[in-house]
Amino acid sequence: MANHEAFINTDLSEFAGKWIAIVDSKVVASSDSPKEVMEKAANEYPGKKPLIARAPTQHLLILAAGKK
Amino acid sequence: MRLSFKFKDVDIGDHLHAIRRPIIPVTLSSAAGKSIDIEAFIDSGSDNTVIPKDIADFLELELGKKTDEIALGGEKFKAALGHVHMTVTDGRETVRLPDIVVSVPIEGGTVLEEVLIGREPFFRDFDITFRQNSNRIILERVRRA
């Protein structure tokens, strides 16, 4: 849960819209590709399970139903 | 059984207050024995749970050959169905939801950039209360009907 607490409490605006990996409560990788952040975290922090997240975008999210 | 989470506050430039987004940590695991800890957006506007293709690939999900058309944010995707186990914990209580059907966009639209927890089946497993003013997302476990 420490990694989730870090996700909640950290200002992630510099990573907005990117995938990130959090290990030991710190962002250790960021990329447009979730695969890349998973690989980087696995290579640099073997034996630790990273928390993967997409850093929240800083624009309003509106659910829009598509046309039939 | 009750699980409790804080919202993720996101600063949206032109707004006076941060926007609170209901994002919770889950562990997704597959029949292939792969698992990932990932943040997921609770989206009551989604009928189903949707995961990005890259995440499905990492989990080595076996996707069905049949595809359904789904609408997401005004765009249409072709999506295949897969199965995951989902574990939710708030550090005090842990709930494992086995064999959840998920949609995986495989064609069309822009790339899905989020794990979306839709109503099926999550909202049958939990009564969910968004207490935005006290910064709490409450999940109360219920038996499926």
Q: What percentage of residues of chain B falls in helices of 4 or more residues? A: under 10%
Distance between the termini of chain B: 17 Å
Compute the number of helices of chain B: 2
Determine the N-to-C terminus distance of chain A: 42 Å
Quaternary structure classification? heterodimer
Backbone shape of chain B: globular
Total helical segments of chain A: 2
What keyword list fits this structure?
heterodimer, A: 68 residues, alpha+beta, three-stranded antiparallel β-sheet, 28% helix, globular, B: 145 residues, mainly beta, Cathepsin D, subunit A, domain 1, seven-stranded mixed β-sheet, 2 helices, 12 strands
Describe this structure in words.
The complex is a heterodimer of chains A (68) and B (145). Chain A has 68 residues and is α+β, with helices and mostly antiparallel strands. Chain A has helices spanning 2-9, 34-44; strands spanning 19-23, 26-31, 51-54. In chain A, strands 2-1-3 form a 3-stranded antiparallel sheet. The radius of gyration of chain A is 14 Å and the shape is globular. Chain A starts with a helix and ends in a 14-residue tail after the last strand. The mean pLDDT of chain A is 89. In chain B, the strands form 3 sheets. In chain B, strands 4, 5, 6, 7, 8, 9 and 10 form a 7-stranded mixed sheet that branches. A 3-stranded antiparallel sheet of chain B has the order 1-12-11. In chain B, strands 2-3 form a two-stranded antiparallel sheet. Chain B contains 2 helices and 12 strands. By secondary structure, chain B is mainly beta. The mean pLDDT of chain B is 90. Chain B has a single domain (2-139), classed as Acid Proteases (Cathepsin D, subunit A, domain 1). Chain B is globular and about 45 Å long. The chains are: A alpha+beta (68), B mainly beta (145). At the A-B interface, helix 1, helix 2 and strand 3 of A face strand 4, strand 5, helix 1 and strand 8 of B. Strand 3 of chain A pairs parallel with strand 5 of chain B, so a sheet runs across the interface.
